[in-house]
Amino acid sequence: QVQLVESGGGLVQAGGSLRLSCAASGRTFSRDTMGWFRQAPGKDRDFVAAINWSGENTYYADSVKGRFTISRDNAKNTVYLQMNSLKPEDTAVYYCAAAKRSLVMRPTSYDIWGQGTQVTVSS
Questions:
Q1: What Cα–Cα distance (Å) separates residue 103 from each residue in 18, 23, 39, 44?
Q2: Which of 56, 76, 115, 119 has the fewest CB atoms found within 10 Å of its own CB?
């Protein structure tokens, strides 16, 4: 069974940090572009960050540039999202996903999704 499992979410104060992990299983994802998205209640699922298969190319939403860092360890079949200087507006469920198309900022470019992990940032 191919699946992605996110972990590392939680409650943190504004200005704090969290590190999300996305562990893949069922097949290797080492050749896939991987992405992180987030969805707040009542809002659309928004792009956060993406990374190509080698890790050489990364992409970020303007709202997280300079604060979040995406990385991957292909040997562990795992993708990470380091989130620093968190703000209350970062509160959302965070999802990782594997891309099937090259337009990495579009949710429709991804065909495998995790179940999500809640991140709550208090002011």
A1: 27, 22, 19, 17
A2: 56
Query: How many other CB atoms are found less than 10 A from the CB of residue 77?
Result: 17
50 neighbors 56 (Cβ within 8 angstroms):
no
Calculated CA dihedral for residues 53, 57, 58, 59, nearest 10 degrees: -110
20-65: per-residue pLDDT in tens? Answer: 999 999 988 989 999 999 999 999 999 999 999 999 999 999 999 9
**Cβ atoms 88, 122 nearer than 8 A:** yes
Q: Which pLDDT band holds residue 110 (cuts at 50, 70, 90)? A: very high
Sign for the CA dihedral angle at 30, 3, 11, 94 comes to positive
Q: How far apart are CA 61 and CA 65, in angstroms?
A: 6
**Number of residues that make up the chain:** 123
